[in-house]
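Support reply, case 0932

Customer input (verbatim):
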Amino acid sequence: MVLSRTGCYGVCPIMDVSINFETKYIKYYGNKYLVKKGFYEGDVLDLDEVEKLFAQTRWDTLNNHYDHGSDDDETVSILFIKNGKIIKFIDDYGGSASIQMRWAYAYLLPFINNTPLTKVDKVNDIYPKRDYYTFNRGDSTLRLTKAEGYFLYLQLQEAKTTNKAFKPKYSIELARNYTYFPRHIFGESYEKMIKNFDKVETDGRYYKIFFKNGQIMTYDIGYNYITENNISGLFYKKENEY
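Our regenerated output:
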């Protein structure tokens, strides 16, 4: 399972967490308004209550999107994963999903705060962590949710390098969460933050990164992220973007 919170116009937490209930392992990234900030990970033997609470949501019967129509609230995006692939996504804007789901992710944050995890001081920065990933194909674009972007980020961190040639279908853009976390708060320039590479090309499985220092590396995540996952978005014309 992967759960991400976008933040809001207030002090809502901005975070991403991946929980593997089989291996009992957590990977967590805390950004803002949190006790744990930065990258953490570790074995967590007692995940029974977390697993039970999310099972009680009957997530497989829930809608994919929830929205109560107000402005400036947070979105909690959740992915349920089986055999390394996304089988269900839920985007909950403003706590509009079932009360059982709200109980589950409300329990999760204090659970992480009180669980000993190892701080990862040196993160593999081959593909830097960003909040939002956008796939571009000609005049069409596909934006991943925050949780989908974090899941792809984790897979790229574990991907194998390869010399295999492939035909690119998409280019990728990355962005920070500027909706609720304005640029000036970072205290550094946009250009310095956004990337240490010139461009990324992909066919969904292979990701070729052109670094600013002239190095070119290709990473293989083992399957096509776009076509083999149940993801939230569809490609749409950029002129229809709002």
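We compared this against your earlier run and they match. Two observations from our side: Residues 2-119 form one domain. The chain has two domains: 2-119, 132-240. Please reopen the case if you see a mismatch on your end.
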